[in-house]
Write a structure and sequence with these properties.
- By secondary structure, the chain is an alpha+beta fold.
- The protein has one domain: 2-Layer Sandwich (Enolase-like, domain 1), CATH 3.30.390.50.
- It has 3 helices and 5 strands; from the N terminus they run E-E-E-E-H-H-E-H.
- Strands 1-2-3 form a 3-stranded antiparallel β-sheet. A two-stranded antiparallel ribbon has the order 4-5.
- A hairpin with a 2-residue loop joins strand 2 and strand 3.
- Helix 2 runs antiparallel to helix 3.
- It starts with a strand and ends in a 6-residue tail after the last helix.
Length: 101
């Protein structure tokens, strides 16, 4: 088993909003993630719930997309300024080591 690695990215969504990702991963799985930026996710307690759901998820597009889609379908959360797929793209940008747009 390899040690944890810190990854980060600043991702500009197509509408111009910023998603900032800071995550720790071990063996290509998310240990923890912090998501911030100039977007809104309502209700306010939705963002910590999404971050918690992302823990132990593989850093793979298919798995991330399934989880994020399930989160938005299964909760009353609504993102303003970004789309659910932008969260996936931002996390994958962190995995690839940089900024994205």
């Amino acid at each position: 088993m390899t040690g944890a690695t810190s990854l980060s990215a600043d991702y500009k969504a197509p509408g111009g909003k910023l998603l900032r990702i800071r995550l720790r991963e071990t063996s290509d799985r998310i240990d923890s993630v912090e998501i911030s930026g100039d977007f809104f996710l309502i209700p306010e307690d939705s963002l910590p719930k999404l971050e918690k759901m992302l823990e132990d998820v593989p850093l793979k597009e298919k798995e991330l997309k399934l989880l994020v889609d399930r989160f938005f379908r299964g909760t009353s959360a609504h993102a303003l300024g970004v789309a659910p797929d932008d969260f996936v793209r931002a996390i994958l940008a962190a995995k690839s080591g940089g900024s994205g747009s």
